[in-house]
Amino acid sequence: MLQLSQRPLTASAADAPLFADRAPELQQLDRAVELRFNTLVLADRGMGTTSLLHRVERRLVDRGIPTEFLGPDAAETAASVLAAVREVFDGAGQETVLLVDDLDADVAFELFGRRRDDLWQTPVRWVVGASTSRSSVFRRPPADTFFEVVLELPELSADAAEELLRRRVAAAGATTPDAVRLAAAIPVIATQVTPRTPRALLAAARATVLADEDGQPGALGQVRHLQQAQGLGRAPAMLFSELQALGSASASDEELLRRLGWTRGRTAQVLKQLEEAGLVAGHDDHRGSPGRPRRVYAVTGGGEDG
Questions:
Q1: DSSP-based three-state secondary structure for 299
Q2: How far apart are alpha carbons 23 and 233 in whole angstroms?
Q3: Contact 147, 103 (CB under 8 A)
Q4: pLDDT tens-digit series, residues 249-302
Q5: CB count, 10 Å around CB of 167?
Q6: Cα 77 from chain centroid?
Q7: Are 139 and 109 within 8 A, CB to CB?
Q8: 38 to each of 43, 78, 97, 120, 205, how far by Cα in Å?
Q9: Domains in the chain, please, with CATH?
């Protein structure tokens, strides 16, 4: 069965064959850990940071290096992260690599700014993933000196994008009808979808396998709509991809705001831009509150072709 969900890949053996090529980034992260450098990984939403950190986790564990992974829930507060550090102290005090995913800006500054000197004294080496939109907090003194390495995760190359999708096809069994349909569309998706992130590529792949037998609105239609959104700018393209993943959302949707790292006002502005272009449609949702209805948006069939 094709695995095309938005679920990040984990450090499990089952997910290992699905991981796309990030060889340069993995080599840099391996080297940083070897040299005992603290490393910050910055990326736009949907770029695959969580999957990358889990891949690093698996590689470190396979090499016998003590490793702990903290996801957003486990790293929700500075206290919860410090509790994980204390567990390292309470153990044998062996040097441990702590991988922290999607760290909140306030939590980051509390840890690496106010408590920087204390953390430097611990047997912990840090690999922290964060949204590019939060990068300023890591560059603010005194937090700016905590990380020796800052890695900015780029979009996938066309070859890496094709590999990502072909790995999904191979894992599902290349002879299933859905896999055959997706395999035929991979060259188009890998070269035309923008931004070339795992999230956008998987959204295009889902549209392809959900298409009617005549191919609508599969890969070609999906690519055209993404290109129309990109023509409006990077922000509209990002928001369009998120709406494809979520199905529908309002400007106050917490999950949408978390994924984008934007304010409600900024999100509402870009949603209006997409609506005026005919790429999304909005309707008033009166459920859940007697007051003013929420304006909920979903992706349409696309704007005008001309």
A1: strand
A2: 29
A3: no
A4: 999 998 889 888 899 999 999 999 999 999 999 988 876 656 678 899 988 754
A5: 16
A6: 21
A7: no
A8: 17, 17, 9, 10, 36
A9: 22-152 (3.40.50.300), 158-299 (no CATH)
